[in-house]
Amino acid sequence: MSEQLYCLEFFVESVDQICVPFTAGAVAFRLLDYPTVMVYGKQTADEKMVVFGCGKSCLFKLTHSVLENMLARVPLYCMFVDVASNNSTNISNISSHIRLLGTAAIDLNCFGKQSVIPHAN
């Protein structure tokens, strides 16, 4: 079976009800063994809210069977982090400056079964 190109898009509107003090909020996404993707927000006058209104997209190639198998076992990890004043897009450059504020694991198993979009030949 041949590899197919997939696109995963992230969009973050805002994060609110933040209960701990932070300097600069960001959301980090980690899918499978691919590099972590960071989306940076803007703090509002309300210290318990960060507005993003933006996102990122990622392209990757896998065979459909490998993608389906991996998504059945590994969730998409999302982390809300305090990145201080460092706006690097490469998480390996800022890992020592990140403070974890919250996490979520999102099951994408259902998307692996429907990820191929039919196209006309």
Number of strands: 7
Taken in chain order, the helices and strands follow as: EEEEEHEHEH
Helix content: 10-25%
Q: What is the CA-CA span between the terminal residues?
A: 18 Å
Mean pLDDT: 82
Class inferred from helices and paired strands? alpha+beta
The shape is: elongated
**% residues in beta strands:** 35-45%
Radius of gyration: 16 Å
**How would a crystallographer describe the biggest sheet?**
4 strands, antiparallel
- Provide a count of the helices: 3
How are the strands of the largest sheet arranged?
Answer: 3-2-6-7
Contiguous low-pLDDT stretches (5 residues minimum) are 115-121
Overview of this protein structure:
By secondary structure, the protein is α+β, with helices and mostly antiparallel strands. It contains three helices and seven strands; from the N terminus they run E-E-E-E-E-H-E-H-E-H. The chain has helices at 64-73, 91-94, 109-113; strands at residues 4-16, 25-30, 37-40, 42-43, 49-62, 76-82, 99-106. It has a four-stranded antiparallel sheet, with no helix packed on it. Strand 2 and strand 3 (37-40) form a beta hairpin. The longest helix has 10 residues, at 64-73. The protein starts with a strand and ends in an 8-residue tail after the last helix.
